[in-house]
């Protein structure tokens, strides 16, 4: 199963932006479950786009103004949800933010 | 009178439904298909057993019938071909007795741990457990939880979809996950029991069945996991509560408090079962919240008269429970027990300390307990005020009527 771990946090999470992953990435890459991922610049740097009736509409900021914002993501591949839960729980961001475990569509 | 074949099918349904569905899910990985095939197998049993008699091992017969049905259905669809090969492989290697081998976990255990996976919403876990493991119909489950049938069907479909799409594994969790997963299973069973036990709404009869259903599932769990003392503790707790069900309500449907219940109407057999189970479990020396609560229930259930109740022991048990699962409600119960064991002044001191924390603000049982203690201390005016405060906070008419009676009895 492939899952993306969506790492979210409120403004206070910004102070962790340069923390790195405390060896998590290395450990998971070695285990062979990490397929990719990245940390993101803050939502203030985001541009949101829609195309409506052929017209490109841009707006400044993230697509939803919520307290919790996406701060990074990781793509993992593992046996099942229990393993994904264990992998996500080991991520340092789980201790101060929230991690959404989202299965990928089978294509 | 029910004809013998119908009775045999009924009994097989209660005893074997969960096993048949659980086995079919393991073979096919398809929850809907498993349920459909199990249903067909029971329909077929009704026809065939009438003609050929009831088989020696109804469970094995039903599992085989359901499996053959699955092979038929899978053969009809192109996408079923790969699955069919898997099932066919199982047919050759998997003897019907495989489930009896000690190191092969019972499929029902896989099913219950999957149904109660913490990635599912609590109400979805409860509904799924009742549907797939206990075999209750969507209509019955909807009625028991006072929601529309369509909403319940949707809830069940969504839960099954999540299991499939999110990759929730169909297995008994490995040992290192058990300490966090078993409580989730026990919580679902206890919630089911309490839904049935505290039945006060219109759907009374259905909800009483829920309590019986929870006990049945807990028995299965205890048989399958004999080394888990908390599973046995939960079953003992349910049995001891269930033993009192006939005495809990009066003719008008009002709640009768423990000390006023007609103890002659308690089920002595169930109490003996519960106490024996609890004693055997406590001897393992790994107490947990369910075992302690069962021990408290046993103190009440084994007192021939209210004044024989060992309140000192109950106070000690509540203190222990408070250490295991700290909660202001447990503290309140401890205060009441202390008030019975060591006098109303000692109890009132604890209740007042608890009141000052504000943790139970708005909870009617705090002023109600306070009122009883004040009454026993002869502080009648204060007691009356506390009864009124409690009545103002009570959620149900039955509770308000009870508090009004206590207030009137003050004179």
From TrEMBL, chain A:
Species source reads Microbispora bryophytorum
Query: Domain YCII-related spans what residues?
Result: 1-106
Q: Which Gene3D superfamilies does this UniProt record tie to the protein?
A: Dimeric alpha+beta barrel (3.30.70.1060)
Q: Please report the name of this protein according to its UniProt entry.
A: Transcription initiation protein
Write down the superkingdom of origin. Answer: Bacteria
State the family named in the UniProt similarity comment for this chain: Belongs to the YciI family.
Which Pfam families does this UniProt record tie to the protein? YCII
From TrEMBL, chain B:
Question: Is this entry keyworded Transcription?
Answer: yes
Report the residue ranges that make up the RNA polymerase sigma factor 70 region 4 type domain in this protein: 112-163
What lineage is on file? Answer: Bacteria, Bacillati, Actinomycetota, Actinomycetes, Streptosporangiales
Q: Organism source for this protein? A: Microbispora bryophytorum
An example GO biological process term is: DNA-templated transcription initiation
A Gene Ontology molecular-function term?
A: DNA binding
Q: Which InterPro entries match?
A: DUF6596, RNA_pol_sigma70_r2, RNA_pol_sigma70_r4_t2, RNA_pol_sigma_r2, RNA_pol_sigma_r3/r4-like
Q: Which Gene3D superfamilies match?
A: 1.10.1740.10
Q: Where is the RNA polymerase sigma-70 region domain?
A: 19-78
- Keyword tags: Sigma factor, Transcription, Transcription regulation
Q: What is this protein called?
A: RNA polymerase subunit sigma-24
């Amino acid at each position: 199963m492939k899952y993306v771990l969506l790492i979210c946090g409120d403004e206070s999470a910004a102070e962790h932006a340069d923390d790195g992953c405390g060896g998590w990435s290395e450990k998971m890459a070695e285990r062979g479950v990490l397929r990719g991922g990245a940390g993101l610049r803050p939502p203030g740097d985001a541009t949101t786009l829609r195309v409506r009736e052929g017209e490109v509409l841009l707006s400044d900021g993230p697509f939803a103004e919520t307290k919790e914002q996406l701060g990074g993501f990781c793509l993992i591949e593992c046996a099942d949800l229990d393993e994904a839960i264990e992998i996500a729980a080991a991520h340092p961001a789980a201790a101060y933010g929230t991690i959404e475990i989202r299965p990928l569509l089978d294509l | 009178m029910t004809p013998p074949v119908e009775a045999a099918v009924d009994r097989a349904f209660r005893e074997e439904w969960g096993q048949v569905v659980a086995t079919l899910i393991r073979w096919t990985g398809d929850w809907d298909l498993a349920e459909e095939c199990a249903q067909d197998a029971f329909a077929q049993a009704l026809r065939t057993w009438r003609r050929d008699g009831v088989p020696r091992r109804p469970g094995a017969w039903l599992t085989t019938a359901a499996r053959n049905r699955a092979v038929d259905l899978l053969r009809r669809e192109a996408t079923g071909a790969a699955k069919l090969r898997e099932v066919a492989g199982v047919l050759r290697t998997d003897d019907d007795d495989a489930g009896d081998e000690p190191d092969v976990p019972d499929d029902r255990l896989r099913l219950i741990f999957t149904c109660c996976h913490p990635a599912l919403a609590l109400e979805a876990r409860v509904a799924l457990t009742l549907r797939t493991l206990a075999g209750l119909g969507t209509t019955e489950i909807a009625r028991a939880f006072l929601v529309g049938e369509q909403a319940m069907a949707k809830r069940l479909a969504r839960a099954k979809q999540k299991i499939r799409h999110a990759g929730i594994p169909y297995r008994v969790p490995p040992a290192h996950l058990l300490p966090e997963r078993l409580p989730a299973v026990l919580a679902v069973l206890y919630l089911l029991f309490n839904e049935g036990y505290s039945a006060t709404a219109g759907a009374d009869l259905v909800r009483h069945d829920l309590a019986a259903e929870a006990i049945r599932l807990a028995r299965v769990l205890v048989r399958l996991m004999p080394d888990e003392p908390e599973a046995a503790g939960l079953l003992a707790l349910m049995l001891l509560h269930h033993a009192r069900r006939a005495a809990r309500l009066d003719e008008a449907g009002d709640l009768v408090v423990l000390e006023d219940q007609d103890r002659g109407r308690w089920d002595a057999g169930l109490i003996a079962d519960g106490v024996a189970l609890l004693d055997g479990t406590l001897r393992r020396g790994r107490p947990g919240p369910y075992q302690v609560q069962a021990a408290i229930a046993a103190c009440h259930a084994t007192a021939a008269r209210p004044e024989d109740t060992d309140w000192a022991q109950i106070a000690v048990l509540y203190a222990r429970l408070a250490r295991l699962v700290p909660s202001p409600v447990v503290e309140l119960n401890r205060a009441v027990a202390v008030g019975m064991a060591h006098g109303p002044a000692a109890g009132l001191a604890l209740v007042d300390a608890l009141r000052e924390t504000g943790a139970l603000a708005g909870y009617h049982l705090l002023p109600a307990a306070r009122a009883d203690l004040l009454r026993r201390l002869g502080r009648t005016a204060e007691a009356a005020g506390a009864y009124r405060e409690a009545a103002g906070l009570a959620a149900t008419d039955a509770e308000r009527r009870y508090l009004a009676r206590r207030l009137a009895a003050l004179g």
